Amino acid sequence: MRILVCHTYYRQRSGECAVVEREVELLRSRGHEVSLFTYDNKDADLMAGFRIASRAVYSRATKQELSRFVGGRTFDVAHVHNTWLMASPSLFPALGRQGIPVAKTVHNYRWLCPVATFYRDGRLCHDCMKRPGGNLHAVLHRCYGGSLAGSVAAASRLTLARDVLRVYQRWVDAIIVQNEFVKGMLVRAGYDAARMIIKGNFLQIPAGITPTRGDYLAFFGRHEASKGVATLLSAMEKARVPLRVFGEGPLTSWLREEAQIRFGASGLVAIEGHVPRQALDEAIAGSRAVVFPSEWYESYPLSIVEAMAFGKPVIASDLGGAATIVADGVNGLLFPPGDSDALARCVHRLWQDEKLQRRLESGAKETYLREMTPEVSYTRLMEAYMAARQHYATRQGGGP
Questions:
Q1: What is the pLDDT of residues 7-31, one digit of tens each?
Q2: 152 FRET partner, CA 20 to 30 A, in 134, 137, 251, 291?
Q3: Are the C-beta atoms of 122 and 97 separated by less than 8 Å?
């Protein structure tokens, strides 16, 4: 199969970018011919403000650039990931006019929320979906990084593509959603459930690492408020078990200062920052459990996949996509988001109950084998691609 993968890299590389690269490698390992049509949002730094905004809303340049890239070649399907900012929603009709069926992975909530998160000012927010004025609330609150211009562009993009031109409804043949939570959000907003294929993220277990059970919790991810890092520190003051924190972000300095103030030289909480991939894998494999205290609707977090690949229970906030992966008492424990007391109780429960620990370890490994292996992911990708081709043939009048 000839597959065109389309993706716009974020200025700061993300889990979504890692997913794209893993899927491309997986497809090529199965003998498919994969071509990459990509942009990098770092290039926007060289543009004037108005040009950036117009490109993000609906880029005329994308059509010409895609046409030159395709150059008369034929593709069986295009798999689209991120289109913010450089590609813009104009990529979808451009692909359709090249005669290429389109499958789109919905990694976040950009089809529903101008800034893709349903999160602002330290809390969940549904104003643009539920309150009069719609996407104007994103402008009013400057949801895009506090920038008025960026917020106008994000709100305009969603309004034009979804509500005026109906780009996603008209030009996307198969919608790849990562779990039932995301599917439900889209269906309630009017998207076609019949076009949706559920496929989560996956991981090939790194060779040469044998899981062991240490006596510490592991947290790894971006250090920002929406990840629940403040809740995590407060819970650790009550739970008093060792915690190793990996990753970086805007709150890294704050985390280091707070860890020193609250835990002193005890070493109970270690802020280890960014480490090489193998070192992180070894830390996950040697942990007792992984903690995931996120306070926004994450879709299919790679950190949960990575934990369960090593058979590690996940203590997660009962919210969004995480709550569809982590089953309380089966492969992990759930607690109300933002509730440090409840998180501390989950930690105590796990540390004091050996039988529970073993059951959750077994459940985590079973979840990985059932949902998160390369083989499972490949099968579902093929289902999505075939569904896209069939839908495209139907809308072209050729029948399924």
A1: 999 998 889 999 999 999 999 999 9
A2: 251
A3: no
The span from the CA of 347 to the CA of 393, in Å, is 52
Q: In the beta sheet, which residues pair with residue 174?
A: 103
Q: What is the pLDDT of residues 108-129, one digit of tens each?
A: 999 999 999 999 999 999 999 9
The pTM assigned to this predicted structure is 0.96
Do 252 and 389 fall into the same domain? no
* Residues 45, 135 within the same domain: yes
Q: What is the mean pLDDT of the chain?
A: 96
213: closest CA among 329, 88, 26, 351?
Answer: 351
192, 253: one domain = no
What's the CA gap between 137 and 125, in Å, rounded?
10
Burial string for 303-321 (b: 16+ CB within 10 Å, else e) reads bbbbbbbbbbbbbbbebbb
pLDDT tens digits for range 58-99: 999 999 999 999 999 999 999 999 999 999 999 999 999 999
Please check whether residues 196 and 232 belong to one and the same domain.
no
Residue 209 lies in a domain: no
Please report the pLDDT score of residue 33 as a whole number. 98
Question: Does residue 324 come out as left (phi exceeding 0), alpha (psi in the -120 to 50 range) or beta?
Answer: alpha
Q: Note whether 242 and 345 are same-domain residues.
A: yes
- Beta carbons of 59 and 87 less than 8 angstroms apart: yes
Percent with pLDDT over 90 in the chain: 96
Provide the domain limits for residue 99: 2-202+374-395
Residues 382 and 365 in one domain: no
Judgement on whether residues 19 and 49 belong to the same structural domain of the protein: yes
Q: Are residues 156 and 51 in the same domain?
A: yes
Neighbouring CB atoms inside 10 A of 179's CB total 19
